[in-house]
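Collaborator request, handled under Task 6.
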Amino acid sequence: MRLIDADVIIARCETVEQNNELSATEANRLVWLKEMIKMMHTIDPVRHGEWVATDDPWFSACSVCGYIEYECVGSNYCPECGTKMDGGKDEESEE
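Structure tokens returned to the collaborator:
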């Protein structure tokens, strides 16, 4: 999968449109392209964390949001914030 910066593409389409050097067909295609890009879903970076022990041995807390879950040791994701429970570092902090 290749991620793109949709805002950059839309801005470039608008720059091309402003030059007024397009045929009607090309202009319609740019309008269509911009609308398709605006409808696309955004993807948030994956957050990584781990279940942290609490004072009560039956409960664990998410290391990212603090959500407390009953017997969640086998859960791979926090049900509250969606953090992947693999103990790894966030993608942004690895750079």
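The cover message to the collaborator said: "The chain has a mean pLDDT of 82. The beta strands are 48-49, 51-53, 59-62, 68-70, 84-85. Please let us know whether this matches your experimental observations."
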